[in-house]
Amino acid sequence: MLTKVLIVIAATAASIQTASGATDKILCYYASWGANRPGDGKFTPEDIDANLCTHVNYAFLGLNDDGSLLILDNATDIVNEGLKKVSALKKINPNLKAIFSLGGYAAGTAIFTAVSADATKRATMAQSAIEFCQTYDFDGIDVDWEYPLEGDRENYITLLTELKEAFEPHGYVLTVAVAAIPTDAAYDVPAMSNVLDVINVMTYDFHGSWSGYTAQNSPLYASPLDGEWQRDNLNANSSITHWILSGADPQKLAIGIAFYGHAFTLTDASQHDLGAPSSGPAPAGDFTDNMGTLGYNELCEFHKDGTIAWDDVQKVPYMYDDTLWVGFDNPESVGLKAQYAKDNNLAGVMIWSIETDDLHALCGTKNALLQAVHDNMK
């Protein structure tokens, strides 16, 4: 079992005060390529617990040059019926919403810039989205544009407005994934808040191996090691505060929760506290195959002998195992983020991404992270 070390430091972050409302949304991104991972890393649509999510965002579809939606992996999405299987989850939970997520980090910004700037392409995108929803029995789309630039601000909100107007007769949902900190140059936040059903705030990737020292992936609050700019920007509480102060209705915001951690190689295994020197990213995991990140499932399967420390200021754990250091989330920290959403009257939480949860209960509970989120949202 993982050894747990408690590091107690008094936390002094203030909560955002808002009017009361329902905090009930659990928006679960499902990375479809999880179905093709080896061994215990394999996670198919049938493995999704339909009763623990309110929305399943199927990642990812793309856009053609004319604005129409594009299937990116025909084998996974169509031949192996990934889309059909996600839609079928609604038979288990009739209240579940199946959502197409368009874009993602790898898609870049150019295609969205081109489509949003052209009225014909915007209309094509809206019509294509409706047709896709009808064909595959989905309930809407999520626009994951990473990231709109200064020149995209007006076109971005025009695109979202036209999509929502086209969707309204059908009752389709429109959500977006956005940067942790809103920039006025790229985001018209009040207009977005008026148009969208949910704004999924990516409150993670605040630190990684690029930092040169160990730091948390998704801290809820600021660290005493942070400088002024970091305290104001590189934690979930600051991010949500920025969005609200920029004009977002809290009831449209979902705080992001990461089911993975950023992984570092320690320069010296004996120096393993926060802020310890790092020589770079840790090697790729057996399942996620990405240097510098590890899924929660990989920590459970391959690093049970590591030591977990709890950071009581940032309200997240970290793990060290020889020269490996990982800032991640566990059931306790994701539960605190769900509680934060309730305390601050947010729409709910967004998860990236459920296929790296502990499907096989190697840390003790099947889908422990998602279960903790669900339990704390009650």
Description of the molecule:
This protein is an alpha/beta fold. The chain has one domain: Glycosidases (TIM Barrel, Alpha-Beta Barrel), CATH 3.20.20.80. It is built from eleven helices and 16 strands. It has an eight-stranded parallel β-barrel with strand order 2-3-5-6-7-8-9-16, surrounded by six helices. Strand 14 (316-321) and strand 15 (324-327) form a beta hairpin. Helix 3 (110-116) packs across helix 5, helix 4 packs across helix 5 and helix 10 packs parallel to helix 11. The longest helix has 18 residues, at 119-136. It starts with a strand and ends with a helix. Residues 1-19 have low confidence and may be disordered.
Number of domains: 1
Would you identify the CATH H-level superfamily?
Answer: Glycosidases
Number of strands: 16
**Numbering strands along the chain, what is their spatial order in the largest sheet?**
2-3-5-6-7-8-9-16
- What percentage of the residues does DSSP assign to strands (E)? 15-25%
User: Radius of gyration over alpha carbons?
Assistant: 20 Å
Mean pLDDT: 95
Tell me about the biggest sheet? Answer: 8 strands, parallel, barrel
Terminal CA distance: 29 Å
Return the CATH class.
Alpha Beta
Poorly predicted ranges: 1-19
The name of the CATH architecture is Alpha-Beta Barrel
Structural class: alpha/beta
What sequence of helices (H) and strands (E) makes up the elements? EEEEHHEHHEHEHEHHEEEEHEEEHEH
How many helices? Answer: 11
Q: State the share of residues found in helices, binned by percent.
A: 25-40%
Structural shape: globular
As for the CATH topology, it is TIM Barrel
InterPro entries: Chitinase_II/V-like_cat, Chitinase_insertion_sf, GH, Glyco_hydro18_cat, Glyco_hydro_18_chit_AS, Glycosyl_Hydrlase_18
Keywords: Disulfide bond, Glycosidase, Hydrolase, Signal
Domain GH18: 24-378
GO biological process, one term: chitin catabolic process
